Amino acid sequence: MLTWLHRNFVLRPFEGMVKGRNTFRYWGELERTQWLSRTELEYRQLESLRRLLSHSYQNCPYYRCEWDRLGLKPNTVHTLADFHDWPILTKEAIRINRAQMRSSVPGQQMIAKATGGSSGAPLQFDLNLESHERRVAATYRGYNWAGAGPGTKQFFLWGAALGDRTWKQYAKDRLYDWLNRRITINSFEFSRAKVPEFNNRLNRFRPDVIVAYTNPLYAFAQSLEELKQIPYSPRSIVVGAEKIYPFQRELIERVFRAPIFETYGAREFMIIGGECDRHAGLHLTTENLIVEVVDDQGHPTPDGEEGNVVITDLTNYGMPFVRYINGDRAVAGFTECPCGRGLPLLRKVVGRQLDMIDTPDGRRVPGEFFPHLLKDFPAVERFQVVQESNSRVEIRLVLRPGWDDTSRIRLDAELRKVLGSTIAIDVTPVASIPLTAAGKLRVVVRTSGSASELTPSANRTK
């Protein structure tokens, strides 16, 4: 009852009347369309795609120039299969052409965003207000499958805002948490020494759901079991930001005595897919996105084979993302769920796995901290974090013009806040960062060997 009251008499009026957003209306639409047949959803996808391509060609100089060069016209796309021959959009192309990718439609309100750069290269981009509202609505639906819809009481073990916070920013954060009935525990501050404090806060708050980064929650669960501390058991747990492995799921569900619901998302789109209560796979946000798995030439990967994730955002008319390769890997094959929803299931996300960094004073810092921090340094083109022993960490930076002593001092200060004073930190400008044999950039590299390395044999509690 309290959830329903808070949702309808606090959140809904705030979103609609105070902020003037249509988020709840879009959420209602998505709750209805998820039950359409897959054929109907694909028809709607095609119609949305044709409108997006037409808009992009007419109003975005980058796309008009690129597609004219290749002899491509929006009116030639008659099926979703016709779209498979269109060019792939890379992060580098966005960095170079961001201004030309923006829509020239006058009066369109835009929101500037930045990715955390878990691929090792932060990215700045833009979106229009309606697109933002529609992706928030999709997150409402995805979390609602886990019993974590708006108005539920939520305990977030997540990356907190970095940098010095003014009292106004702090007050805004507290208001936002109150509006959403949640508390946020900074996962970047996690250490074994903080386990009793984190557990006490969880037990006092007694949430309906825990929402967390996978790695910190797994480390938290490990420590709780080792210390024989009993945490409060929520109705469900939502994990995101990185792939969860079966051995992690088993331990977390055992310790917290609650089912896990995996989500797959990206800063560029928010939620891409999520589990329903059948746990048969990740339902894709088909109404907002076209998700493909392709080979290195941009062609569809055969079912059962691993490929690159490519996404088209059907709602972002401010700065369209058309066949954008986001750096993730997945196994091709879109199946149906026994729940009856028409939303296809992505067979398997391989994703990126970021190691945790250990410090001499017992902190275990999730790898997501570094993309979260470095996205706010525009002069950082690429980065890599290397730890060869617990006493030292090296931050390798490929820099653009604009890096100065002020940037270095600010970076050092932010690193110290989270990594502490007992670890040596080397910030090293480099000309380039080598890729792996598979052509990937490892963002966080541990060579020292620790309990944070994600292999079942190393992480299972005996």
TrEMBL record:
Stored InterPro entries: ANL_N_sf, CapK_Type1_Caps_Biosynth
Tree of life domain: Bacteria
Protein name as annotated: AMP-dependent synthetase/ligase domain-containing protein
